[in-house]
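Please discuss these two lines.
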Amino acid sequence: MTKATVGVWRRFVALFIDGIILYIANYFIAKPFGSATTSFSGGVETGFSLVGGAALAVILLDFAYFVLLEGTVGATLGKLILGMRVVMKDGSKCRIGAALIRNIMRAIDGIPYFIPYLLGAILIWKSPTKQRLGERVANTLVVNCTTNSHRTRLSVGSTVPGSNFPKTTSSYAVIT
């Protein structure tokens, strides 16, 4: 099965979805510990800030979200919703080590921070395989998935009840 690599705009939407998920999770993690202070504007809660150990815990949990999901499932929830997967450049499943490297490199891909991910976007636009720096170093790609493949992969290795989708053991080939 041949898959096309994914460009900047769909990745941005996936990252935006992941940001919403993490914002909600971080809020509910921090609030019970009394370390989240809320901001109000016109009597409406508009955000929160974290300090100390809670801030460090949230940063580590956010990092783990990307590394563990990409390294085990092959995608974050945002990527799954949009039908994308992270794979090794040879088409095999992304491994934890590669997911760790590609996410450590987000610190560089995110430059300049006043326009987040501008460097990463430029590298994706200029790359024939649409790779940002972290993906080049980790030897990974972000690819499109078909609907059937997407559903099968969401089943995490088991048959989807009421369907003919088999257990998933496939790998991906990439158009270069």
